[in-house]
Structures are given as structure tokens and as C-alpha cells.
């Protein structure tokens, strides 16, 4: 199983960043505008549309507001992994914070395209949420 990890420092408070990252229904379009063009919530699932036209369905696994951690998985759409688990966590670091994004995926062949997408996405997130 491939495990992909990305981390950035964001020049905003952990509380302010969590208000966006922790919102399952609207978080993607708010954290990565332009990279994500649409998010539609449907109960504990959301349909996320990327700028390149890729559409995926994601299911919420858990939200831990105390730890500022959200976990979700791809359950349908253009990408249909055998297994997918993604976690984003916001960690306070003084007046700024770190965003850690980890994704475990099968089959391993999906790792490269997902890693590339995560790299692009986290750059947009950093630019969007920096003060």
C-alpha cells in the first residue's frame, strides 16, 4: 500500500485554518479555489470537482475538532481505488500552523497521480490560507 504525505507551514492561526479544513461540506472549494471548482455535500459524502474535470465522491470517516483532524476516503468517481484513506490535520505552531495531509491508497499504481495532485493542491491551500 502506498502512503503519501505532504506538509506545509501556513502563516495563519490553527483555529482560522481549521475553520476551513474541518468543514467537510465546503472545505475543498474554500481551501483550494481554482484547483477545486465545485463541492456538493450529500449527507456524509461529497462530490468534488477538480479544475481538470476529475470528479470524485468522498465519504467522511471522522472529524475530530479537538485534534483539528479530518479523515475521509474516495468511494467513487473517475478514481476508484481498492482502498483509500486520507487525513488532514492542523497543528498549532505559535501564530502560524502546520498542515499535514496523509493518504494511504491501493493499488500502488494510483500513488503517483494522487501524489502529484496532493502536491498541487497543498500549494494552493497554503497560498489561499496564508494571511
Question: How would you characterize the overall build of this protein?
Answer:
- With 131 residues, this protein is α+β, with helices and mostly antiparallel strands.
- It has a single domain (2-129), classed as START domain (Alpha-D-Glucose-1,6-Bisphosphate, Chain A, domain 4).
- Helices cover 24% and strands 48% of the residues.
- Strands 1-7-6-5-4-3-2 form a seven-stranded antiparallel sheet.
Explain briefly what this protein structure is:
The protein contains 3 helices and 7 strands.
The general outline is globular
**Largest beta sheet: what is the strand line-up?**
1-7-6-5-4-3-2
Could you tell me the number of beta strands? 7
**What number of structural domains do the residues give?**
1
Radius of gyration, whole Å: 14 Å
Please report the first level of CATH classification, the CATH class: Alpha Beta
In DSSP terms (H or I, runs of 4 or more residues), the helix count works out at 3
Give the SSE map.
Layout: E1 2-10, H1 14-21, H2 27-31, E2 36-42, E3 45-50, E4 55-64, E5 69-77, E6 83-93, E7 96-106, H3 111-129
Amino acid at each position: 500500500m502506498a502512503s503519501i504525505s505532504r506538509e506545509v507551514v501556513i502563516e495563519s492561526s490553527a483555529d482560522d485554518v481549521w475553520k476551513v479544513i474541518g468543514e467537510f461540506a465546503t472545505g475543498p472549494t474554500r481551501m483550494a479555489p481554482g484547483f477545486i471548482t465545485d463541492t456538493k455535500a450529500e449527507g456524509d459524502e461529497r462530490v468534488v470537482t477538480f479544475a481538470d474535470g476529475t470528479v470524485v465522491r468522498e465519504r467522511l470517516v471522522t472529524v475530530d475538532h479537538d485534534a483539528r483532524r479530518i479523515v475521509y476516503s474516495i468511494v467513487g468517481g473517475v478514481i476508484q481505488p481498492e482502498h483509500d484513506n486520507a487525513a488532514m490535520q492542523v497543528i498549532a505552531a505559535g501564530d502560524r500552523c502546520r498542515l499535514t495531509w496523509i493518504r494511504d491508497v491501493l493499488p500502488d499504481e494510483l500513488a503517483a497521480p494522487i501524489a502529484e495532485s496532493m502536491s498541487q493542491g497543498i500549494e494552493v491551500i497554503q497560498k489561499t490560507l496564508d494571511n
